[in-house]
Write a structure and sequence with these properties.
Blueprint lengths: L2 H19 L2 E7 L2 E7 L14 H37 L3 H24 L3 H15 L3 H9 L1 H13 L15 H11 L4
Antiparallel strand pairs: 1-2
Helix pairs in contact: 2-4, 2-7, 5-6
Length: 191
């Protein structure tokens, strides 16, 4: 089998896999010819990972594990935040907002408590990064928005005790580029 034939087979397999995962199939008749059109998912192509040592490889696979666990939660929490913002905007005064928020906070606590208690510390830090990526606001800003400045400063102090920072921003182009790569691959179903 020649190299060219191999590439054609790989391409056809990739297209076939993508077509099976595609969301939209359409058919159109143009000048008596039937055209089938498929909207395919994005396919990301990165150079293969080359690790300098075992520690680097372990970091990469830990990042994969943490992203796979935390990304769905980040998306669900973002949706919950959008709902809460919409509901809070409908309420007439601060007293009604506080009352609604307390009830909604208890509901969210019941919804997520068991899952969050079973997370590793690295997964908690990954969730903070992903929340910043999804909402474009740091964890500190989110706590300040919903709980107030005093609570945000308290949790920032606690985070600093554990060598973390709630004010740290997600940087997809530099510091968090491996995380961004993993997120893209996970969202595309390639990892």
């Amino acid at each position: 089998m020649t190299r060219r034939t191999s590439y054609i087979i790989i391409f056809l397999l990739a297209v076939g896999i993508s077509m099976s995962a595609a969301n939209v199939y359409t058919m159109r008749v143009v000048d008596g010819d039937t055209l089938y059109m498929v909207q395919m998912q994005d396919i990301y192509v990165y150079p293969p990972m080359r690790f300098k040592n075992k520690r680097q490889e372990k970091f990469y696979w830990r990042t994969v594990r943490d992203v796979k666990k935390c990304l769905p939660y980040a998306k669900m929490i973002t949706a919950d935040m959008a709902y809460a913002d919409a509901e809070l905007a409908k309420l007439p005064d601060n007293k009604a907002r506080r009352k609604w928020w307390r009830a909604y906070e208890r509901k969210l606590f019941k919804k997520y408590e068991k899952d969050f208690r079973n997370m590793y510390p690295s997964q908690g830090m990954m969730l903070m990064k992903l929340m910043d990526r999804e909402t474009d606001r740091t964890s500190y800003e989110l706590i300040k928005q919903y709980k107030g400045k005093v609570a945000a400063n308290f949790w920032q102090f606690i985070a600093k005790l554990f060598r973390n920072d709630l004010k740290e921003e997600y940087d997809a182009s530099d510091k968090d580029r491996i995380t961004e790569r993993v997120i893209n691959l996970v969202e595309a179903g390639q990892l």
